[in-house]
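Quick log. Single chain, no ligands specified.
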Amino acid sequence: MFENYRVFKTEYAGRPLVVETGKIAQLANGSALVKYGDTTILATATASDKPRDGIDFLPLSVEYEERLYAVGRIPGSFLKREGKPTEKAILTSRVIDRPVRPLFPKDLRNDVLVDLLVLSVDPDCSPEITGMIGASIALSISDIPWNGPIAGAFVGLVDGQIVINPTQAQREVSTLELTVASSEKKVVMIEAGAKEVEDDKMFEAIMAAYNESQTVIKFINEIVAEIGKPKFGYPSCEVDHDLYDKIADFAIEKVRFALDTDDKLVREERLGKVYDEVFEQFPEDTEERKPMMEECLYKLQKFVVRRWLLDEKKRVDGRKMDQIRPLASEVDITPRTHGSALFTRGQTQVLTTATLGPVSDAQLLDGLDDDESKRYMHHYNFPSYSVGETKPSRGPGRREIGHGALAERALVPVLPTVEEFPYAIRLVSEVVSSNGSTSQGSICASTLALMDAGVPITAPVAGISCGLITEGDGWDTMLDIQGLEDFFGDMDFKVAGTKKGITAIQMDLKIDGLTPEIIKKAFEMTRAGRFYILDEVMLKAIAEPRPEVKDCAPKMLSTKIDVDKIAEVIGKGGKVIQKICADTGAKIDIEEDGSVFISGIDKAACERLSRLLKLSHTIPRSVQYSLVQLQEFSISVHS
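-> predicted structure:
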């Protein structure tokens, strides 16, 4: 029945990697059932027959779909089925999208969908890495034009030793969570969270991942040689070169003048006039070919910016290649929030507020891994007014979720433990003005907001981005890229860290990959950049965390009682604990191990309540928490 059924096997980082084709999802352009250990993913790639009209980009979607049956669980929602993608699923989709996208032809406009359905999860074999390999296989064996393959590797750092695709036990003690995607010749994607790992060690880990991935790339090439389909032809959506030449001859000097300013509003006003003049100059092309003319003008801007960078080492705003835009920061911006800060870099501004709450305010999670909750949440908002537009807000998109997760990841390593600081923490970064590098601005603003809130972080964290411009074998990097350098450049290499080491990395590419030399240079530039930001700006706004949380913030204490006393403190049907909370205005959370977290605005009341709970070890059971004691406590609190 399945005459095209094939099975391919290899070993990857000491575990079996098995690929089955020709049996499932045969109506897709390319499909494969990929098994890494017991982790199983159905990877499919499909493309439309014709290009989508009226667009100037590749309409690619990567969907990583979680199913709770993969870990033997029934969804906890009222409907008992999976709803919208979890944050983890969205982030995984982005991690796989980033290395896949640059390898499509630049002039392809057909809709492309890569779907990764998680069928089974082995805790020791990452479904994210399995999904990335599956996407690469499905695209490589399909008839969709794509210049792969790629392979992914997850890297841990256990007792100072680099471990490729660590097991669950190794991940729990690892000081590094690094995902690297590689092609046959270059590194095409980097994403990392780390506990202040030094730059040299991070570089070593990246190259170890690249080297290990070559085994899988060779394996995929062997599969393609046996069953790969010829790639289909498509109508090129390149610009009309004759029209481009006409517009360039007329407008190139006008475009140079328009771009040559450090003020985004001035630049956009000048460019608007250039567009109007071009449409007036070529009226015969305006009606039917206006979209093409607009694309020609976009490419003309790109040509001007890239020539400046490559030939003159000239940046749009006049900075040197290693120079950071003007910086400013301040704290205590909003009076009734628990912590706040405003960080400004050029025309990019981020306002971050910190909110502290009881540990029970931690976010509950319902995903494929073992994480059930998180006490630190970071949310990032990018309203349209930040770029001078008028689009209404429709909630966070994938980009906002990704930037918030990056900032969250950058700060987790420096947060105090729940025993040291028994609070749930929520940060919200509002991008109030954007001209590039807002995610890194949110990291800087968030560090300041945490210190303003009195959160005893172990070290301040700063973030900075590094750009890249290439032509043939020539290349150069530039520090702190703004919007135009991001749009027209080849890389956005974001690095966050303390003076001790790196805490997070996210790399976006528009080319086919990076050499080791480029990666090293990016690390050198971002390290110098984050040191400068910390010393010259952030620590001058607030040198260390405030010794106490603010008056408007809840006061939190933690204590411990015997496990066998928990039921007595709670009381039948929660009667005792509810009475204590009602009389005192405090909130009590009790964990299974006997840990007790007490929160309230009045610190003295929380301390008296803590002492009362500790008395449970000595007061006879028959009189513990009698109404008389509660009333006396309540009177003492209110007095």
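The chain has a mean pLDDT of 90.
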